[in-house]
Amino acid sequence: MTETRRDLRLREDFSRGRVLTRKALLGVVHLPPLPGSPRFRPGSFPGLIAAAYRDAETLLAAGFDGYVIENFGDCPFYPDEVPAHVVALMTRVACELPREAFVVANVLRNDARAALAVAVAADLAAIRVNVHCGAMVTDQGVVEGRAAETLRMRKALEHTVAIFADVGVKHAHPLGAGFSLAESARETAYRGLADALIVTGTSTGASVAHDDLLAVRRAVPDRPVLVGSGADEGNIARLLEVADGVIVGTSIKENHRVDQRVDPERAKRFVAAARA
Predict the structure, then answer these.
(1) 200, 169 contact by CB (below 8 A)
(2) Beta strands 141-144 and 102-106: pairing type?
(3) Domains of the chain
(4) What single string gives the DSSP state of each residue in the chain?
(5) CA distance 88 to 98
(6) Under 8 Å CB-to-CB from 255, ≥6 apart: which residues?
(7) pLDDT for 114-156, tens place per residue?
């Protein structure tokens, strides 16, 4: 499918790890449980693809630049490596969705190499990595970053897929005392070589602390910084005064519930508020 000029410009900006020339608006396509996960309903996979396609189309029609596709329904998540069938299934879904946009793969909880495989196979623009550097205590146990492996795999695959890395990711706590968000941001950008950084609240849909966003922005002034949770039409203007873009899910869903479909009117209002 032919890429839009908007997609090409975003790909170029992110692959070079530079501050964006225009604010990036990305929605989220939260996949229901995939085959093999505890809550998967036999026979529901074709409907899963149809629902994901509908959400992606709704986001693009509302004016979003693209979307993140993630296996949100697969909890409880593997802490790092997922089984091979998850990679195959996510690639299948990604290839079925609209790709004339900036599309990001996120394989939960933290399988960056699987996300790279999906992104390269489906020719997606980027991957999201929850823990790229350091270690975090999560409900999956201690999750450690594997920046060395991720960067070398990307090099071996000779692909320009960008790496979006969370700093102080949601649903997690730093391992050990003395954690500094600013220092973590600098290490993720300059030692982990992430192309863009993501700042979130404490959980899915939770607002980002403005001081946290400012700390990351000041620590890495030459990298794109995105808000990864808690954005809505009421606060998006203030967030984009600092951030280069946003990843939004819960607030544009029906009834503000993350497990519901994307609401076309909420999505349009969000884009209007952001672009204004």
Answers:
(1) yes
(2) unpaired
(3) 5-275 (3.20.20.390)
(4) -PPPHHHHHHHHHHHTT---SS-EEEEEEE--PPTTSTTPPTT-HHHHHHHHHHHHHHHHHHT-SEEEEE-GGGPSPPSSPPPHHHHHHHHHHHHHS--SSEEEEE-TTT-HHHHHHHHHHHT-SEEEES-SSSEEEETTEEEE--HHHHHHHHHHHT---EEEEEES-SSEEESSS---HHHHHHHHHHTS--SEEEE--SSTTPPPPHHHHHHHHHH-TTS-EEE-S---TTTHHHHTTT-SEEEE-GGGBGGG-TTSPBPHHHHHHHHHHHH-
(5) 18
(6) none
(7) 999 999 999 999 999 999 999 999 999 999 999 999 999 999 9
Residue with tokens 């990864």: 228
Token pair of 10 as six digits:
């975003």
Which amino acid, 202? Answer: T
pTM of the model: 0.93
Is the predicted pLDDT of residue 229 greater than 60, yes or no?
yes
Say how many residues make up the chain: 276
